[in-house]
Design brief:
By secondary structure, the protein is of the alpha+beta class. Helix content is about 25%, strand content about 40%. The chain has a 7-stranded mixed sheet, with no helix packed on it. Strands 9, 10, 12, 13 and 14 form a 5-stranded antiparallel sheet that branches. The longest helix has about 40 residues. The radius of gyration is 36 Å and the shape is elongated.
Amino acid sequence: MQTDSGKGQRLKKISAFFASTLALIAGLAALAGNLTSLGSFWTGMTSEEEIQLIVQLATEAHENPDDNFFKESQYQVSYQSASGDGELRISYSSEYFAEQAKAVGILGSGPYFTLPKVGLDLKIVNNSRQTVFLSDAVLEVSSSLPDNRPLLAFTHHEGLEDVIQFSNDGWGEPARVQMYARIQGRASDPLRELHYGTLPGAQAGEYNFDITPLLESHGIPVDKIRQALGVMQKVPTGFDEALPLWGQVQAPCVRTVGRIAYGDTEESRRQTDQQLAASPYDCVVDVEGYVLMSWRDNAQAESSQRIEFKTTVHVTPPDALGAPAFGPTGSYDMELKTEGTDYTVHSPLSQPIEAGKFDRFILWLGAPRSSMHEFVLRLKFNNTGELSSRKISLQYLMPRSNRQALDELNSDQEAAGAEEEAL
């Protein structure tokens, strides 16, 4: 039989056991609570909700010193962006697409377009409690399609007589090209359709529109023009043999709708036909009109464009004929494919952003040729974190002549680098 003192000792032990058990439970609960708080703390430090990504259009002039001479006569291009339906849409525009006459043609063999750089201006605000280190940029591209739109650039080369020239600087061939024109200052004259590739010396694929139908009704001997152009195909004697034929064209041209390109027209008209026939042959006419062009896109849908123009055309060859804010802290280049689906483009980044700070950097985008793209941008940070943009669509312009000039520039730079290494 237990004594009262024995019962008391046993009750004390049981109470102590329950007390320690309760303390352990309370301790575990507190530890779990602390771990939960700690987990929230670390999650909060890398939470994508506390790091804000702002994506905007980036664009700036892409100067090439060699192009400055022709820049004023090139077609200017700019990029714009618009937002809607959860998407950032980037597209280009140019005076080329405006229905306004371009006063002069473009000299030389291109480039015919002045292209700015285009890319994504990224601003990241770090509202977390630790430094974020952006380590990788990924473009998850859902589609890239070639832009097969023809670009009939209105060109004007020395040594061309009796034609208006357009060069296709796009990557697709037009299904149909028609020109309608008349002599400037004769609004009562109907616009006449002119054809290309009909004069002697015309090459396949050239868009050299024959203006002689506009001259014939004014008494200018078109037959002599054709003969002279035919004779000039001879090498090297053609030019000298064609001089008497051009002399028969000069006088009627100057006395009717033509003018002297490099002299006084009124004074020339007071000269005799014999004097005009012996003069430098620089009679020109001013022509205005438009070109109609149609083509088929990737979906085989037909599109069309009307290109207004006005220009000066040599009827007879001129003298010396035949002479030919907060600044970004970094930038990265990312090259898209001309055509493809479901591929990725990566670029390593090195962009640390301190807690409570913000950063700005540029992703410059490019492609081998004109093309249209749809993609989502993802930025990797702190090993496992990720920021995602909304859907982005890009209409990118890279005409043939700009591609060729860029390739030549890169080749020259590589050759110069190789020469320096060899020294």
